[in-house]
Each structure stands twice: as structure tokens, then as C-alpha cells.
Amino acid sequence: MIDKTFWKNKKVFITGHTGFKGSWLCLWLHSLGANITGFSLSPPTTPNLFELCRIDSLVCSIIGDVRSKDSVQEALLNAKPDIVIHMAAQSLVRSSYDITGETYEINVMGTVYLLEAVRMAAQKGIPIKAVINVTTDKCYENKEWAWGYREQDALGGYDPYSNSKACSELVTMSYRHSFFNPAEYGTHGVALASARAGNVIGGGDWATDRLIPDFIRALFEGTKLKIRNPGAVRPWQHVLEPLGGYLLLAQKLWEDGRRFSQSWNFGPYDQGAQTVEWIVRKLCAKWGEDAAFEIVPDAQLHEAHSLKLDCSKARSELGWKPKWNLEDTLDLILDWTRAYQQKQNLRALCLRQIEQYSALNQSDRQGATRKEDAG
Fold it and tell me: Are strands 60-63 and 11-15 parallel, antiparallel or unpaired?
């Protein structure tokens, strides 16, 4: 799926590189031989994957705010990248109720300023060939369907976070139509796509108000995990699944900017869409050692009950498919957590997991699917 020869010496500009997904992406790209410039605020939590894996030694790290148009433009023009991946965001639903204006500033205007910088680069003759705006599965107007949302379904978003990401999608669509039209690719040379991923989980996430980090904090503190919406269904997937999709999409945009400048879903097979309670019970059983949870409903916070993605377009047109089933994903997270407890080399562990993921082939993926079907 991922072509190492393609990425060798490619100049990649990543916003949000100090976050959970950004840190994993930097490790993967560095292992492929890419030259990475990151632009982001300081790591949002302590501890954090960025510092634990010493990623600042692997990339040109610029601490900056995507709400600063001039800072974004200066960083991108100086980097002269081949490929841009925009992941900087205020990504927490609950926080979006408390810092609503800031959420829109970061997620909407941050996208505008990034794309304006790409426009400026194109005008100056800097050959950026592929740009990916990473949004979320929550950008769709949720109708509580039993089936997955497709890329052509209506955008919406009930809460400020989800709605701001729908707005970011609309901004991307407008820039694609107005300035980076695929029909005129030969004139501007910029391929612009968006990527919508399901609930991403993996080792090294310490964000507040997320299920897996909350579970791990409860383990370390010797308390019961409190869950507020046990029946909520989400498309859970290991962080490497969508990241692999972004890398593959970038390769395809480079190869054929006219064809692949679209929106793309990256999520698990249907078996990966499970309830919050299912996830927690599995984690408690796998960890043992008195891991426990309790249900504490929160009537004040609106949350979708059911959310799934239809990723058939990515499978048929990009050749992307999930590789790890949900059981394996949870095992990998707990392996990472035990390694953290034992003060092991976490960068080396992340790179081993990346190598393990990359080595899987089609037959392995089919085996993983059969394993989930049997479960």
C-alpha cells in the first residue's frame, strides 16, 4: 500500500504534528525517509507521545498557532513542501461547548489560513502537489442510521466541534472549486482532498474526555472508569489505519490530481463499529487486575447514538482496506500501556507496530476480517 521509494526525501508539511495522530504520522514518515516540517501548538497533554518518542529530534518542529495567518504562511513558504497534511484542530466534543468560539477559529479559520498559504505558495512557484485536510466522521448530518455515511451524504454536525469540522469540509470544497479545480489541474498543479476518519485509538493518547485515555488514567489511579453513554456505537480503529489512508491518498493525489481530489472516508469494517460498553468490557477483561467501570449518564451533553462510515469508495478506488481487527487493536493499546508502565523505549515500540502494520498483506487482512466475523 505505502510506497517507501515514493516518500524518500519528500518534503512534507504537517500541522498538528505534536498531537497524538500527528506524532504517529511523524514517526511513520520519518521511517519512510521523508523530510518533515511540523507546525503546531506545544503538546496538549503531559505526558504526550511527541515528547516520549523525542519526535522533535526527527522533524523541523515549529511551535505556532494556525489562527495566526502570517505564522502559517511564513512556516509553509519557508518549508517549500511537496505535500501538506492539515491535522491541527480543537478535536474534543465536550471542550467545544466550553470554548465554542475558539473551536470555530481553529477548525474553520485555521483551514482557511492553511489553504491561503498554499495559494500563496502556488503563486510563488512553490510546487505543492498534494494537500489533505483531515476532518472527522462527525462532520455528517447524523440521522442515527444503521448504515454507514457515504462521502456524498449531507454535512451537518450537532455540537460545535462536529459542526466546525463540517464547515472545514465546506471551506475545502470551496477552495477546490474556486482555486484548485481538478479540471484545471494542469494550470495550478495542486491536488486538494479531505479525509474523514472514524474514532481513532492507539497507544500514546492522553487526551481528556476520550474513552481509551480515560480508561488508562483510571487504571493508573486505581479507580473505576466512568462512562456516560454505554450504548453509543462508534467506528473504532487503530490510529495507523487512517494514517495509512492519508499516506496512500497523498500518493494517489501525486499520481493523478484530477481524479483523486475528492473527500474520502477511512473507517473500519462493520465489525469494528461497537458500543462503548463493549470496548470497556473487553479492555477490563484483557487487563484484569481489578479493572472496572461504572455507568454515569450525562444528560447535559448531546451525543450521537450511532455513527458508522461507508468506506467502499476508498477500498475500490484507492485500494485502501483496514488491516487490524478491533481485538488486535485493543491488545496493541494494552501492550503499549504496559511498555509505558515499564519505562521501555516507546519510540522503538511505535516503530515496531508501524513495521508490523506495514508488513501485513491482503491475505492477512482477509484473515483479520474472518477472525472478527467468527467473534
Answer: unpaired
